[in-house]
Design brief:
alpha+beta
């Protein structure tokens, strides 16, 4: 099964990564990156590139952590991420400070 880029909102965390099965429990998120702080007037949908009126992905001033594989439970939502937004997330530097 091919992994798809997604944004997952869970336990007050916003994470980007790739997931093969969005219905799994726990959900496995590969290459997961946590958005500690994000600047995007489109909110979660802007981070996902879901609304063409908003900037795509993280913007200047956003703070995003390093990549890792994590298991998630108690998920609030899973948002499909466009290819352009996934590219923006993949290229975003580690900026937690």
């Amino acid at each position: 099964m091919k992994s798809a880029p997604v944004i997952v909102c869970s336990n007050n965390a916003v994470l980007f990564g790739r997931c093969a099965d969005v219905n799994a429990d726990p959900l496995t998120l590969v290459d997961a990156r946590q958005a500690y702080y994000w600047v995007n007037p489109g909110g979660h949908m802007g981070l996902a590139g879901a609304d063409e009126r908003a900037p795509i992905g993280p913007q200047a001033g956003s703070r995003v952590g390093a990549k890792g594989t994590i298991l998630l439970r108690n998920i609030a939502c899973v948002i499909a991420v466009t290819d352009a937004a996934a590219k923006a997330w993949d290229e975003w530097p580690i900026t937690t400070g």
